[in-house]
Target: Superoxide dismutase
Amino acid sequence: HISAKIMELHHSKHHQAYVDGANKALENLAAARQSGDFSKINQFEKDLAFNLGGHSNHSVFWKNLSPNGGGEPGGELADAIAEAFGSFEDFKKQFTAVATGIQGSGWAVLAYDTISGGLITFQLFDQQANVPVGTYPILML
Model:
C-alpha cells in the first residue's frame, strides 16, 4: 500500500519537476544550437537525460496503478513470469529484493529484454543509469 500523501507528492512535485527540467534542458539545447555555443552541451545533455528519465519512469509507474489492481497476472504475462522466475511467488521475492536493495533514489524494474526474449529485473538509479540496452519496462516501483 502506498499512501495518498506519497502519491500526491510524486505526482504534483516529483513528476512535475522532471517535466519542467526536461523542458528547460530542451530550451537550453535549442539556445546552444542557435548561438553556436556548445561549451555547456554535456551539462544540458545530462540534464535532459536525468529529467526525461524521471518523466518517463513516473509515466510508466502511473500506468502500473489501478484502484482495482493487484493479484496475479494472467495470460502471456503470467507465462513469461513463470518462464523467467519459476513462479509468480518467486518473481515477487526477487522484485522485492531488487526494490529494497536500492541505495538512495531509484526504481525496481521488471522489463522485457529484446536480446533474450524474456523478462528480467534490474535496479535503475539516478532516473536513467543502469538500464540494459534493448529493454522495455513493464513494471516499475
